[in-house]
Specification:
Elements lengths: L1 H9 L2 H12 L5 H33 L1 H17 L1 H8 L5 H10 L4 H34 L3 H26 L1
Helix pairs in contact: 1-2, 1-3, 2-3, 2-7, 3-6, 3-7, 4-6, 5-7
Length: about 170
């Protein structure tokens, strides 16, 4: 559950799908996975929002080239408000940046907190579900194959780590 919280605090799709799979296998509780995923994403977004609200303008002043790009984003968030908040939750790789941008914008804290809570709850449930139902589909095809689960877990961890490293190196 700690891994789910930390993973969703940062981004989270991969960890939620994997946790949903392990919930179906009986290692985790699917409702707790959804709740912890919601809390991680929500608390993470509040943190990134606060960072943008408290330090975003100073950061942009230090990096004028970034200011030009962020200015367009800020105007978009101010223009579309709630719709922009909801859509950006579903854009992989942009949630942290968008939460900072919303923090810099003039969108009210209460509006952000309310809609982000609803959004994170739906997101957590929707992203956990494929892992859970994928696990059920595999079980129905293969039956309970307890002896290969540990190898599957190791493979999932290695693949997830490789994908994460690839994206980090690609960003640099």
């Amino acid at each position: 559950y700690l891994a789910v919280f930390v993973g969703t605090f940062l981004e989270g799709e991969g960890i939620l799908v994997a946790a949903g799979f392990f919930a179906e296998r009986g290692y985790l509780d699917v409702f707790l996975v959804t709740l912890v995923g919601f809390l991680g994403a929500y608390i993470g977004h509040i943190f990134w929002f606060w960072l943008g609200r408290a330090h975003g303008v100073r950061l942009l002043d230090r990096f004028p080239r970034m200011k030009q790009h962020f200015g367009k984003s800020i105007r978009m968030f101010e223009r579309y408000g709630v719709t922009a908040i909801i859509i950006t939750q579903w854009l992989y790789g942009l949630r942290i940046t968008c939460a900072v941008v919303v923090g810099i914008s003039r969108i009210s804290l209460m509006k952000f907190l309310f809609y982000e809570a609803l959004n994170c709850l739906v997101w957590s449930a929707v992203i956990t579900a494929p892992g859970y139902f994928f696990g059920r589909a595999i079980e129905s095809v293969l039956g309970r194959v307890e002896h290969i689960e540990k190898y599957g877990l190791a493979a999932i961890i290695v693949i997830a780590l490789a994908i994460w490293l690839y994206h980090r190196m690609k960003e640099r």
